[in-house]
DNA sequence: CCGGTCACTTATGTATACAATGGCCCGGGC
DNA sequence: GCCCGGGCCATTGTATACATAAGTGACCGG
């Protein structure tokens, strides 16, 4: 594996997990030393993160992890709605009914009690996303969705996974999968719309009234004073 | 301006203009020498082009300009429809009515006779796109649309700008702009859908029955044998 | 004569040295 | 005491040297 790939993967993971908080300064020599690579592959990694929108050049001399506020989340979901409704529609037209019937079945039997069950559920969603991409068979759409999903990982950290919402989410996914499996493009699109509406509402409720969790993404005010994990 | 920016801008322009045809091999030392920069900034430029989807690493040793076939164009327009319909809807909800009323007026008076009028028309479309981005005020959507538009520049080279299609395109843009100016989100979205349907049909007609133009993007068969402008 | 293997060439990937620029601090003057 | 200017330092941007691996061609063996 290339050093630049390792640097990218590591930084991406740390940003998504919140270890590198919004506003954290990413100095090239510092990060290169920390990750055990030279500046050249590190710069490539930073370039990819910048193209993803996860870091930005605050000024000519300082690169920081971008912040995510409620407005950003609304914007992100506007794009997500557009792309995922389209994906659901196209998958319903083109997808293998069997694959999505199987997924609908898996969602029907999914549970959310305990960490193991939760991990299984998240893995199931990942499988659903992969099937969706495969069914749509559109590289441009998949690439656009990849960017959205990259940001979503960070956004999800802001939402509290309350059991009620999780149970509803399971049911929503089941409906989407079964609609795609039934070649019902309209239902798939509308069910996706509803699912994303509910998911956004849940996230915004958590953001507007922040949890006491220490992992909450820092607001702009003190963010730029935080340094990367040294 | 940074050397990497110049290299990126130059290569982007050459790919979009077809000077670097699909399949053209982009060797680092060769291109670096040609563009008068060292390999480091050139690699950064190639990385950005790869993230745009304009070049791809065919194997571990060879980077080529990506090809565009009719299937790619259909895929691209699926994403474009999703994003631009959303953009039109959001602009209708949020945009400054005056700005789009002015644009509608400009489209109403636009002409397409002669190269100067055509240049003016393309500039007007660019102005429309900028106003749309400003009205939508969504960085994620703007970024996604930027990628689509980057590819569209190449796709447009495939379409013949026949007068009938151009006249219809003017009218379609006028309707979209006026719908946004009237805060009519539904009409704006549907008019965008119709416009993109017509634009795609026009392009596919040209691609399926290629013109005699020497600038037609080369098919895969002989493409990989072409070298970059040396 | 054909196929396989090894070495060589040439490309990319990485590290490091050099250049240039922007910020910051200190000192002086108003 | 505050503001402005100059010089120093740190950081990014670029070039180049080095490492590594993949592809190619030639040579040897069957």
From TrEMBL, chains A, B:
Please indicate if the UniProt record lists Transcription regulation as a keyword.
Answer: yes
Q: Which UniProt keywords apply?
A: DNA-binding, Transcription, Transcription regulation
| Domain HTH gntR-type as annotated: residue spans | 1-68
TM spans, by residue?
none
Q: Does the keyword DNA-binding apply?
A: yes
**Name of the protein:** GntR family transcriptional regulator
Q: Which organism is it from?
A: Microbacterium deminutum
